[in-house]
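seq as requested:
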Amino acid sequence: VELEESGGGLVQAGGSHTLSCTAHGHGRSFNTMGWFRQRPGQDRATASVVGYWSGSRLVVADSVKGRFTISSDNNDDIYLHMNSLEPEDTAVYHCFGDPSVGGRIWGQGTQVTVSS
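C-alpha cells:
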C-alpha cells in the first residue's frame, strides 16, 4: 500500500488550498490517517501534527484550528483544507496512515509554499 499526496504548490497569503492523500494498492483499512508538516529548516523527526481522523473523530492542531479542517470520504483517504494561509504555513506536508495491520505508512510529502 502506498499513500499518494497531491495538491501542493504555491499559494498567496490569505488564500485557500486543499491537500489530498489517498491510499493505493492492496486494500487495507486504516484506523487513523493524518498530516504532519515539516517547516523549512526543521528536522522531519520534529515535524508537527496538523490534523488527523481516527474513527469518527476529526482533530486539528490548536495552532491551525479555525483555519484548517480535516475531512475524509472513506477510511483510506484524508483531505486537509487550508484557509487564510500564512507564510508560516510554508512546509512540506506529510500524510501518514496507521493501518489496522502493520506499522505506520508515510506519503512522500508535498510542498506548500505561501507567498506574502
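DSSP finds no helices and eleven strands in the chain.
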